[in-house]
Design a protein that fits this description.
By secondary structure, the protein is of the alpha/beta class. The chain has a single domain, classed as Rossmann fold, CATH 3.40.50.880. It has six helices and twelve strands. A seven-stranded mixed beta sheet has the order 2-1-3-4-12-11-10, sandwiched between helices. The protein has a three-stranded mixed beta sheet with strand order 5-6-9. β1, α1 and β2 form a beta-alpha-beta unit. The longest helix is centred in the first third of the chain and has 10 residues. The two termini are 18 Å apart. The structure holds glutamine. The site of glutamine (GLN) has 11 residues, from α5.
Length: 192
């Protein structure tokens, strides 16, 4: 088996097993990755949901920022979900926490307020087909502003919640928690 086709799931903290399971259901060789070498060997990378401050601190401590930026610059697809979206953002409103800063988006953490910490909704995502996607939001961020290279693929209450910038994808909800495989399939299809 060639390592070239391996999709990594950044396994510092967060819902790693759910992403591995989703990718495996799509017939993909998916592996948890924790070191610079493992990241460099990936054909694509998922940054899971969890706690973005924790993942960011561990990323800095283990020197993983550079290999992740290199991977993105090589054109490998990167999918950040929830906390992963926050880590991909250039701007995190009111926070100077560590980040990759690869996507020209401004995000607000825990944007949906305390009383609706978590909820589910049916989202129209035209690039994934006519059937709406059941989207699970858990203390989710939303996007307040996007740069010119960023395409909004889905919005909720007027805010982008699924965006693309070339080979980079950021999703505010948790596609790994439902049986719908279309977000991960879309991510895999971005591989050159
Ligand atoms: N609220 C978390 C954060 O700010 C993200 C929540 C999640 O990933 N489910 O990092």
């Amino acid at each position: 088996m060639s390592t070239e086709r391996v999709i990594g799931v950044l396994a510092l903290q967060g819902d790693v097993p759910e992403h591995l399971r989703t990718l495996q259901r799509l017939g993909i060789t998916a592996q948890p990755v924790r070191t610079a070498e493992e990241i460099a060997a990936c054909a694509g990378l998922v940054i899971p949901g969890g706690e973005s401050t924790t993942i960011g601190l561990l990323m800095e401590r283990f020197g993983l920022r550079e290999p992740m930026v290199d991977l993105a610059q090589r054109g490998a697809p990167i999918l950040g979900t929830c906390a992963g979206m926050i880590l991909l953002a250039k701007d995190i409103i009111g926070s100077d926490q560590p980040r990759l800063g690869l996507m020209d988006i401004s995000v607000r953490r825990n944007a949906f307020g305390r009383q609706v910490d978590s909820f589910e909704t049916d989202l129209e995502i035209p690039v994934l087909g006519p059937e709406p996607v059941r989207a699970v939001f858990i203390r989710a961020p939303y996007i307040e502003a996007v740069g010119p290279k960023v395409e909004a693929l889905a919005t909720f209450e007027g805010h982008p919640v699924f965006v693309r910038q070339g080979n980079l994808l950021a999703v505010a909800f948790h596609p790994e928690l439902t049986e719908d495989l279309r977000v991960h399939q879309y991510f895999l299809d971005l591989a050159p």
